[in-house]
Amino acid sequence: MEKLQHDQFSVAILPPATAYHPVDGRKYTLIMSTGEMNCHLAIGFKYETDLLNAEKEKIITAEWKPRLGEYVLTGKIDLGSLNNFHLMQAELAKAISMMVKADKGLYTHVPWLLDAPIYMEIDSYIHKYKTIQYFGTPRQYLK
Predict the structure, then answer these.
(1) What's the pLDDT at 79?
(2) DSSP the chain
(3) Closest to 140 measured CA to CA, from 105, 106, 103, 93
(4) Which is nearest to 30 in space by CA: 75, 65, 72, 66?
(5) 30: closest CA among 15, 16, 20, 44?
C-alpha cells in the first residue's frame, strides 16, 4: 500500500491498484472529519467505507466510468439533512481538488483524463438540494 501524508490529509493507494492502474472502475473514498480538519483518501478497486464514523465524518465517493466513448468521473455525497447547501458546495470543490491532486500520477500516464468531465450527485433529505452538478475537469483542479 502506497501512503502519502500531508499534515491532516492522508492518501492510501490500495493494492492491486497502483498510481497508474486501473482507470476503469478506479474508486475514490474521501472521508472528511467534521470536528477536526482531518481527511483520508483511499484509491482502489472498491470503496473503503469501513473506516467511517458516521456521527463525526462525511464521505465522498467517486469513480472513473466510461460513458459514450469517453471517461467521466462521477461521485456522490450524502448531505443528510444539512441545511447549508452553499457551504457544502465549496467543501465539495475542495474535496474534488484533493482527489485530483492526490492522483496526479494517473494523469501523467493517462493524459486524456485531464479533460474528462466531473459530475457529483448530491443526495439530501431536503428535495431542493438533491441534484447532479458539473464540477469542471481535472485540469482545472491541477492549476
Answers:
(1) 75
(2) -EEEEETTEEEEE-TT--SS---TT-EEEEEEESSS--EEEEEESS---TT--TTTEEEEEEEEEEETTEEEEEEEEEEET---HHHHHHHHHHHHHHHHHHTHHHHHHSGGGGG--EEEEEEESSGGG-EEEE---HHHHH-
(3) 93
(4) 75
(5) 44
How many folded domains does the chain comprise?
A: 1
| Residues 39, 72 contacting (CB under 8 angstroms) | no
Q: Which domain holds residue 99?
A: 2-142
Closest CA to 83 of 132, 127, 23, 139: 127
Residue 56: band (very low, low, confident or very high) from pLDDT cuts 50, 70, 90: low
Type of residue at 87: L
